[in-house]
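Try this one yourself first.
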């Protein structure tokens, strides 16, 4: 398995007491498999994705990416694992405003001291149809162009696992459909595993498997 979440619990301490968000959650994703996570707003989908990305740690349980337990890794090791094996696409793009599209895409490669980073980044932009916009800052790009840059950035390292949080949620329906089609096409061509958080029945239906987050656990759909 490329990803395994085993008996994962997550609670947050508040002045009114602890709030349990995830309770005994289990998830396994095979290489090349696409999995949609659906559920009501506030059910903990984004919290789960944050844990799977190693951006936060579970209160109890373990998460393994490519056999490595995230809870046993230091910050530098987590960063290296994310840079090497994982891509993340957020709803709000999270591009660096002071960097061009090319520089945004090449950044993960630069952080790993990868040779020919600009050439690889330009090729990734070409895959998402934006080679001619490589020198543009995010402020000069449309919403769908920004999301395509974000997808190129996530996939430029050729990760084994891609995590996506409502990747078309901030786009209109027609533009969102085009971005989603591009995302699934690139994932299929690279045999990349995908865990996708979404409210969309149509988008979740495009995945190999759909699971529902309810009561802090994932239920087969």
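Now uncover the answer:
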């Amino acid at each position: 398995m490329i990803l395994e979440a085993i008996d994962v619990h997550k609670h947050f301490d508040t002045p009114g007491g602890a709030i349990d968000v995830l309770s005994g959650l289990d998830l396994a994703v095979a290489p090349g498999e696409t999995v949609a996570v659906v559920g009501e707003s506030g059910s903990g989908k984004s919290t789960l994705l944050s844990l799977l990305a190693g951006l936060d740690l579970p209160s109890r349980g373990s998460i393994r990416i490519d056999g490595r337990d995230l809870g046993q890794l230091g910050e530098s090791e987590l960063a290296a694992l994310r840079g090497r094996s994982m891509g993340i696409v957020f709803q709000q793009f999270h591009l660096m405003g002071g960097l061009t599209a090319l520089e945004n895409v090449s950044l993960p490669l630069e952080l790993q001291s990868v040779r020919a980073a600009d050439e690889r980044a330009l090729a990734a932009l070409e895959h998402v149809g934006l080679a001619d916009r490589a020198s543009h800052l995010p402020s000069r790009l449309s919403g769908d162009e920004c999301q395509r840059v974000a997808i190129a950035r996530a996939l430029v390292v050729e990760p084994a696992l891609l995590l996506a949080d409502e990747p078309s949620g901030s786009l209109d329906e027609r533009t969102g459909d085009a971005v989603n089609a591009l995302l699934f096409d690139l994932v299929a061509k690279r045999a990349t595993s995908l865990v996708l958080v979404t409210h969309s029945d149509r988008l979740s239906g495009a995945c190999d498997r759909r699971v529902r987050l309810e009561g802090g656990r994932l239920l087969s759909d």
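Discussion: The mean pLDDT is 92. Helices lie at 45-52, 75-85, 101-111, 117-127, 143-155, 173-190, 201-204.
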